[in-house]
Write a sequence for this structure.
């Protein structure tokens, strides 16, 4: 595995995906755009797993909505500055699995085109964001379980603090990638 691998452009490869790259907008924990470009990229291994998850979602009548995928290492400083809590944001010195191209942030859209209620928003860094938070409505818990089943079926694992975050089980063995696009400096 080299840090110069060719990343897969998800918008081109999977046109059935809905993509809303939150860090290319102000709708994120930083409150301003982090990415200078609106590009949704993944390592080929993660893209292969995502392809399986896309198929499983379709079988269940859902579409995946991607909020983030590959993240330039420069972006991690912005996120750390906005939320310097290692429970939610990986310390800059460690490097995020997003910066390896092996992690993706997603939710589900139903057959009516509505984003499912997950009981907490993307980038809501709170206990409500934990995948199995007990204080949610039955519908939100069921939606999170469906999302987990779809992503786990593709070969991803989740993390304990963010219902939207999924990564390859061996993500830590992949190298951090050189930045593929520019980011705005932290505010």
């Amino acid at each position: 595995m080299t840090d110069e691998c060719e990343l897969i452009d998800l918008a081109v490869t999977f046109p059935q995906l809905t993509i809303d790259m939150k860090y290319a907008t102000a709708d994120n924990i930083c409150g301003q755009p982090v990415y200078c470009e609106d590009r949704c990229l993944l390592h080929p291994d993660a893209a292969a797993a995502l392809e399986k998850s896309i198929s499983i979602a379709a079988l269940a009548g859902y579409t995946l909505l991607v909020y983030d995928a590959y993240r330039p290492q420069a972006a991690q400083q912005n996120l750390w500055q906005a939320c310097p809590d290692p429970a939610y944001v990986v310390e800059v010195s460690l490097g995020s699995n997003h910066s390896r191209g092996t992690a993706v942030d997603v939710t589900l859209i139903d057959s009516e085109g509505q984003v499912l209620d997950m009981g907490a928003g993307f980038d809501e860094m709170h206990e409500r964001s934990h995948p199995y938070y007990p204080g949610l409505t039955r519908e939100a818990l069921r939606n999170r379980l469906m999302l987990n089943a779809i992503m786990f079926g593709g070969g991803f694992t989740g993390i304990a603090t963010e219902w939207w975050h999924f990564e390859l089980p061996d993500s830590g063995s992949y190298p951090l990638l050189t930045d593929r696009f520019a980011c705005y400096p932290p505010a």
